[in-house]
Each structure stands twice: as C-alpha cells, then as structure tokens.
Amino acid sequence: MPLPFRRELPQQSASSGISASSRPDDRNLPKSATEKHGSDLYPELKELMLRNQRWAKRVGSADPGFFPRHYPGQRPEILWIGCSDARVPETTIMGSQPGDIFVHRGIANLYSPSDDSLNAVLMIALINFKVKHIIVAGHSNCVGCQTALRASNLPPVPETQAIQRYLKPLTVLARAMATEDGPPSLDLLVEENVQQQVRNLLASQVVQDDWKRRAEYGVTVHGWVYQLENGTVRDLGVSQGPPGAKPGGSRMGPRLF
Ligand SMILES: [Zn+2]
C-alpha cells in the first residue's frame, strides 16, 4: 500500500508537512491589536485575537523554546476521536499541551469505513506517527446522541439533510437498543455509541493494516466517556490491542519505515 504523505513528511515522518518555502515570516505574525483588520469589526473575534496574543506571549516568555521546538514537526502518541462539542476540548480537559494529542472531532464521535476524513487522519496517525493509542471519547449530554435518540422514537423518514444522514447509524443503534420499557437512556446510548465506534475501528481496514505492519506493537483502541457534570473521564474498559500485545509494555517497536 502506498504510504500517504510520506514524501511530504520528511525527517522520520515527524514533520507537520510544512515546507521550507511556506515557513512563516514576520508578515504572518500577529499584528498589533490597535491596527484595523476584519476581526476588529467583531468584538467577539477581537477578544479572541487579544487572548491569542496574550497566550503566545505568556507561553513564549515562560518557555522560549516552546514555539521553535514545535515548529519542525509533531510526534503525538495518542489519537483522540471525539465529539465536536465545544465543552469537550481534548487538550484542555486532559491537562495536555499542544503537540500531545492528534485529533479528529465530529458530531457524536462517529466512525464509519466510508468516512475518508477520519480514514485519512487514521492513516497519518498510524503510518506516520505510529500512535500507541486511539481513544474514542464520548461525553454525557451529547447533543448528537440526543438528536439520534429523538429521531429513533419517530417513524423513519428519508434522510434529506446532512445531519440526518450522518447520524443515521446512531439512530439505528438507538432504535435497536429500545426495549418494551421504552428507548434507552441518553447515558446508555452515549456509552453504547462509544463501544460501537471502538468495534467499528477495530474492524476497520486501517487498524487491521496497522496490526499487520506492527504486529504486537500495533495500536490499542480505547473507549472513554467524559462527564460534563464534574470534568472527569471514565474508562469503559473496552480497550483492545493487536493479538499478542502486552498492555503497559513498551510499544515503540522496530521502525518499519
Ligand atoms: Zn457530543
């Protein structure tokens, strides 16, 4: 199989893929907040830009090597597949730093084999970065799960809108979980959805290919739920790695590429 972006990611595949010709210079650095740009016309964007400038200054002052160190490339060990929900920013809630976590977020943290946006992220994560862990992270009170749960209580209708098409597998799951006592609780659907996405990923070509390439050093897939109520993450205990994997052991393995 061709290795995607291998040539575009020089230096042991740990680069961000930014070529020397696109190296930012002073023209791209933040301008003074007193200058007029488009964002000045919108107070909420102006505030965001000011926060960014304060953040960059604070981080650069505390650790002058931070930005120079990050510019050449990234080497995350974790791929986070989470929900788009603004309340669940993975780097913040996991107490992590830029560069720690490779990310794909979409409504209700879904994965399907036809999702080439996520397939591409998976390939980069597994082939280029050789991440050790994929974490499927759902969260309580997920609006995507709420929407699917509501739709599952109604007679099926043609999926004419993108959100209906996108959530269809989740709606089907919610419908399948209904019992004579009624539909599943939202909390139960959130958990089952995470477990279903873990199963989908384990069965995916891209994970199966990773296990062939890396054997017992291949990626392990985990299912977690973030509790909005108190900010903690719960491990659902559904982790699965390749045959012969030794949990907790060194997973670096031989460099194959
Ligand atoms: Zn959500």
From TrEMBL:
<dbReference type="GO" id="GO:0004089">
    <property type="term" value="F:carbonate dehydratase activity"/>
</dbReference>
<feature type="region of interest" description="Disordered">
    <location>
        <begin position="1"/>
        <end position="37"/>
    </location>
</feature>
<feature type="compositionally biased region" description="Basic and acidic residues">
    <location>
        <begin position="23"/>
        <end position="37"/>
    </location>
</feature>
<feature type="binding site">
    <location>
        <position position="83"/>
    </location>
    <ligand>
        <name>Zn(2+)</name>
    </ligand>
</feature>
<comment type="function">
    <text>Reversible hydration of carbon dioxide.</text>
</comment>
<feature type="binding site">
    <location>
        <position position="139"/>
    </location>
    <ligand>
        <name>Zn(2+)</name>
    </ligand>
</feature>
<dbReference type="InterPro" id="IPR001765">
    <property type="entry name" value="Carbonic_anhydrase"/>
</dbReference>
<keyword id="KW-0456">Lyase</keyword>
<feature type="region of interest" description="Disordered">
    <location>
        <begin position="236"/>
        <end position="257"/>
    </location>
</feature>
<keyword id="KW-0862">Zinc</keyword>
<keyword id="KW-0479">Metal-binding</keyword>
<dbReference type="GO" id="GO:0034599">
    <property type="term" value="P:cellular response to oxidative stress"/>
</dbReference>
<comment type="similarity">
    <text>Belongs to the beta-class carbonic anhydrase family.</text>
</comment>
<dbReference type="InterPro" id="IPR036874">
    <property type="entry name" value="Carbonic_anhydrase_sf"/>
</dbReference>
<feature type="binding site">
    <location>
        <position position="85"/>
    </location>
    <ligand>
        <name>Zn(2+)</name>
    </ligand>
</feature>
<dbReference type="GO" id="GO:0071244">
    <property type="term" value="P:cellular response to carbon dioxide"/>
</dbReference>
<dbReference type="GO" id="GO:0008270">
    <property type="term" value="F:zinc ion binding"/>
</dbReference>
<dbReference type="Pfam" id="PF00484">
    <property type="entry name" value="Pro_CA"/>
</dbReference>
<feature type="compositionally biased region" description="Low complexity">
    <location>
        <begin position="13"/>
        <end position="22"/>
    </location>
</feature>
<protein>
    <recommendedName>
        <fullName>Carbonic anhydrase</fullName>
        <ecNumber>4.2.1.1</ecNumber>
    </recommendedName>
</protein>
<feature type="binding site">
    <location>
        <position position="142"/>
    </location>
    <ligand>
        <name>Zn(2+)</name>
    </ligand>
</feature>
